[in-house]
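Appendix B. Chain record.
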Amino acid sequence: MQIFCSITAIIILTVTLCVLMNTLFLGRTYLEHKKNGMITTYDELNAAVHGNYLYKAHYRIAFEKLASESNLSIVVMEPDGTIRLSTEGENITSRMQNQLWAMLFQFDSANNVEIYSTNNYRIIRHTDSRMDGDFIVLYGNLSDGNTIIIRCAVQSIHESVNFANRFLLIA
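Structure tokens predicted for this chain:
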């Protein structure tokens, strides 16, 4: 009986520690992974600018694949605001375009927390009050002078952590 109680206590302690570790660290790890993925995406798109093929028709499928594999929304705009390249439909694109202008001119700075920045871009955690959600957003300029915004919803990260915890508790 004592062995059974000891094994049960060890199992409960192990599951509790796993749930605690997931809650404390898994979300941060996912955010860091997503941030690094956005930086990689930016670098790949900027390399396509340097290779003079970002806006070519043959690159469109690679562009869409790059965005969909990382679950990212991407908009590239010319300095006059003309959408040059987008993964989204027109309505979403205009919302992202408005969000970009707001970020560039700091209209919504109370809802932004900077995560990382370079000379070419900033990555922020943005709370979108209209959509009642948080996003990780990279915005800045490509080497051709066009403005880029790359966005990812944070809600999916929270859902993944909750799912992992539920799985541990059920198992």
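Further analysis of this model is presented in Appendix C.
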